[in-house]
Automatic annotation (TrEMBL):
Organism placement in taxonomy: Eukaryota, Metazoa, Ecdysozoa, Arthropoda, Hexapoda
All copies of domain D-isomer specific 2-hydroxyacid dehydrogenase NAD-binding, residue ranges: 101-205
Signal peptide: none
GO CC annotation, single: cytosol
Protein species of origin: Nezara viridula (Southern green stink bug)
UniProt-recorded name of the protein: D-isomer specific 2-hydroxyacid dehydrogenase NAD-binding domain-containing protein
Gene Ontology MF annotations: glyoxylate reductase (NADPH) activity; hydroxypyruvate reductase (NADH) activity; NAD binding
Amino acid sequence: MTEISGRDVPRQFFHADGNKEVVKEEELQSLKMSNRPKVFISRSDYPEAGIKLLRDRCEIEVYNSLEKDVPTNELLNKLVGKDALFITSKNKINKEVVEAAGDQLGAEFIDFDSLLQQSDFVIVTCPLTSETEGIFTAEKFSLMKRSAIFINSARGAIVDQESLVHALKNKIIAAAGLDVMTPEPLPKDHPLVSLDNCVLTPHIGSATLETRDEMCILTAKNILAALDGEKMPAEYIL
């Protein structure tokens, strides 16, 4: 197809068979928009640096409400027909959410134990509830790969800390990074403090403007790379 266009005239497309097709500029822009990947963004206060990357390439829909986080029932409706999801960890990505997204999102729900067995990095960002308290037990650590990295930026009580110490000392998992512990701060003589394969930060793991901007930009780049079928810049394979 050959295109002939001018700044203020409709664009003319000549097909291989010689037929001519005239498309008005507004129709062309509408066509371009309809072919852009659709991304749902679950909050309106994410750093603009990352959102701009998506806006330049995608058709984005931002949840804009007095409530910071999109309620689950609205999230289920917003997911339909979307190619990607930019979402805070406060929203629970469960089987219902994955099924609502459909095949277009390319997500698959698996059970907790299978997730632990398959993951190179286990990153805990869930809230502390009666369901999640102490959920990471000795049994759960034993399911993980010996090369697995365990990261907790949620709440210390989600982890059975003695079991974590045992897993690290005995190389059941490779290493841990903890921004939260029980108690906070840990006593200086706590076993976690002296372990070479455990990094501790005092519950301020990402609390700088620069880090928050970079987190948002990296998430946007991951989304764009996945939509293009390319390797994600933050995809880590052990």
